[in-house]
Amino acid sequence: MSTNNASMKKHMGLKASRVVSNTVIYVILIAMSVIWLIPFVCIVLQSFRVENTWQVGYILPKQWGWDNYAALLKTDFKVWYLNTFIMALVVSVLQTMIVLCMSYTLSRFRFKLRQPLMKLMLVLGMFPGMLTMIILYRVLKDLGMTQANAVPGLILVYIASSGMGYYVSKGFFDTISKSLDEAARVDGATRLQILFKIILPLSKPIVIYTILTAFMGPWGDFVFARYISFGTSAGMNVAVGLNGWLSLDQIDQRYTMFCAGGVIVAIPVAVLFMCLQKYYVEGVTGGAVKG
Amino acid sequence: MQTYSDLEYLKLSKWNKFLYKIASFFVSIPVAIKNGFLTIGRFFKNAAIDVKEEFRDIGSTFKNGDVNTRISFFVMGYGSIRRGQVLRGIMFLLMELVFIFYMVVSGGYWLSMLPSLGKTGPTTSYDAILDTYVPTYNDNSFKILLYGVLTLFFIIAFLYTWRLNVKQNKIAQEYLAKGKKLKSGKDDIRSLVDEQFYKTLLALPLTGILIFTVMPIVFMILVAFTNYDGAHDGYINNLFTWVGTTNFGQLLNWTSGSQNYSATFGEVLTWTLIWAFFATFTNYFLGMFVAMMINKKGIKFKKVWRTILVLTIAIPQFISLLYVSKMFAKNGILNGLLMDLGWITKALPFWEDPTWARITVIIINIWIGIPYLMLITTGILMNIPADLYESARIDGANPWQQYTKITLPYMLFITGPYLLTSFIGNMNNFNVIYLLTGGGPTNSAASTAAGSVGYTDLLVTWLFKITTGAEAQYYLASVVGIMVFVVAAVISLVVYGIMPSTKNEEDYQ
Hints:
The complex is a heterodimer.
Chain A: H1 2-47, H2 67-73, H3 77-108, H4 114-124, H5 133-142, H6 150-160, H7 167-175, H8 178-186, H9 191-202, H10 204-220, H11 223-229, H12 238-245, H13 251-275, H14 277-288
Helix pairs in contact in A: 1-13, 2-13, 3-6, 3-7, 3-10, 6-11, 7-14, 8-9, 10-14, 12-13
Chain B: H1 6-11, H2 14-64, H3 67-72, H4 78-82, H5 86-113, E1 123-127, E2 132-136, H6 141-177, H7 185-191, H8 197-223, H9 246-252, H10 262-295, H11 302-314, H12 317-327, H13 333-340, H14 354-383, H15 386-394, H16 399-427, H17 430-436, H18 459-468, H19 474-498
Antiparallel strand pairs in B: 1-2
C-alpha cells in the first residue's frame, strides 16, 4: 500500500512538473509570437496613419485613411512593382529549369568530371558574389542592359549562375531510389524518358520549392538591383526603390508611404508562401542539411 | 599535450575529459591545416603527372597513327570525316576554323596587349573650328583585360578540343583495326539524350556559370594586381596597368605607405569573424531550442506557432529588415514606447553606439534566423530514434542529460556541414548588415580608409562601399574579396579536417 502510494505521489509529481514545464513553454511561445508579429502589425498600422508622414513614437494611428496607398499610385512605385513582378516570373521559370537540370545530373549520372565540378563550385561559392558585380555591371552597360533597361540585365544575372544553387534539390533527388531508374532502363527507357516519366512526377515538392524560392529571390534582392539600375528609377526593383524613401532627405515625407508599399509587396508574396509552405518545409528539411 | 588511450580516457573525471577534448581540438588545428596544404600539394603533383601522361599519349598517337590520324593533328576532324564520322569531323573542323578566324581578327590583338593593358591613354587635341579641346579615347584597359581573359579561356577550350580530336583518332583507329564498327552521327545524337544525357543537361547551366561566375572571378583576381580605380578607369580618365602585389601590401602591411589599410582591415576582419560566430551559433542553439519546445509532447497548436514564426521567411527580407531598423532608430517606435512608459528618459543609442549597434544586429539576426533553424532542426529531431530517449529515461537521465548526451551529439553530427556553410554564409551576410545599419556607426578612427568604414561593417559591406565610394578603388575591393575567400577557404579546410567523418554520399541512395 505504502509503495503504491509513493509511486502515486511520484506520478503526481511528474504530472505536476509536466504541467509547470508546459506552462512555461506556452508563456515563452506566446511571448515569441508577440515579438515575431509586432513589426508586421506595426507596419500595417503605420501604413494607415495619415496625420503625418514621418516616424513617430506611437503605434496606433490617430487618424486612419488610405492616403498613403493613394499616394503610392502617383509615384514610380508601379514601375518598380511591375519590374520586380516580371523578373520574379521569368526567373522562377528559367532558374527552376537550370537548377533541376544541374541537380538531376549531379544526382543521377556518374561521369569523370562530376567530383571536380562539385568541388569547383564549392570553391567558387567561397568568393563573395559581390566581387563579380563590378565587371558584370560594365559588361551589361556595354550591352545596354543597365539603368532604365536593368530588367533584362538583372534577369540574366539572376539565372546565369543559378546552377550553383543545386544543393537542396540534389539532396532531394538523392533520396529517390536508383532502382527505379534501373528498372526503367531494363525496360528500354532512355535517360530523357526516365527524367520526364519517372523522376519529375515524383519530385513535385522539390519542383515547387525551387519555383517558390526562385520567385521570391528578385523581391528581396538589393545589391545587384541597386548596382545595375544605378540611380535610374525606371530600372529599379521594389527593394531599391523603397529603400530610397528611407534616405535622410526623404524619410520625413515618405515614411508612411514606405510602410504602405511594404504591405503591398509583402501580401502577395507572403500569401503565396503560406499556401506553399508545406513544400518549402519539405525542401528545407529534406535537402538543406544533407547537402 | 599528453595523449590518453581509450581506457585511460574513460577513467578521467568529467572536467578532465572536457579539458582533454578542448585541448585535442586545438592541437588538431595545425594538423588539419597541414593536411589541407598536403591535399593541395597532392592535387598539383597529380596534375603534373597527368599532364606528363597526356603528352606521352599524344606523342605515341602521332607515332603509331596512320595518315588520317597524322593529318588530323593539323586539320582537325580530317580523320573523323575520312572514317565516316562526318558529324564529329565537321564539328572539329568548325571549331578550328572559328578559332583561327577569331585569333587573326581580334584575339591576337587582345592577347598582345594583355601584358601592358594598353599603350596610349586618352589624349586631348585642340579643335580650331570649335575652339575647344576635344578628347580622343584610344586603348581601353578594361576591355583589354576582359577580352584578354576571354581569349585565354578560348585558347584553353581549343586545346581541349584539339586533344579530344587526337584521342578520337586514336580510338577510331584502334576500333577499325579490331574490325569493330564506329558510331554514326545518328548514334551520337541519340546518345545525347541517353548515356550522355548529362552533357545536354549541363551545357546551359555550366555555360552560365563559366561566363557569369568563373570569368568575372578570374577577372577580379587579376584586377587585384592592377591600379584600376575611379581615376584609372582604363578608358576615359586614364589607363590602368599592372602594379604587382602592392595592393596586397596596403591591406596586409607588407610595405608601408601613406595608404595603409591594414589596421582597418584587421578591425573589420575581427568583427566579421565575431559576427559570423555569434550569428551562426545563437541561431543554431536557439532555433533548436524553439523546435524542441514546439515538438514537445502535450504542446498544442504546433502548426500555429510554426506559422507565426515562418512569417519572417515569407515576407521579403528587405521590408522586415528596413522596418525593424527604423523601429530601433533614435526616434523610432521602440524608443518612443519606452519613453512613454517612463522607463527611460533619453533615447537608447541602438544604432549610434558601436557596442549597442553590434549587439542589436546580432539580436535582430536571431529574430530573422530562428524560423529557418526551427524548420531545419524539426525534421532532424523527429528522426532521432525514440528508443534512445526511452532507455535513457529508464536509466534515470534527466532532460538536460538527455539533451547533452543524445540530442546535441546527434544534431552536431548531422548538421556539421550545414554549420560550416552557414558560418561562411554569415561572413558574407550582406543584407542583414547593410539594410539594418548600413555598416554604421561610422568609425572615425578609420575614416581615412576607403569608403568610410563603420563599426558593424563586414568585409563584404566594406567591399561594396569601396566600389560605390567616390574613389571607387576597384583594386582594393578585389583584394578584400580575395581575402574573404582565403579566410573562408582556411576555415573550411580546418573544419573538414576535424569533422569526425565526411559523409559518403552514395550511402543515401
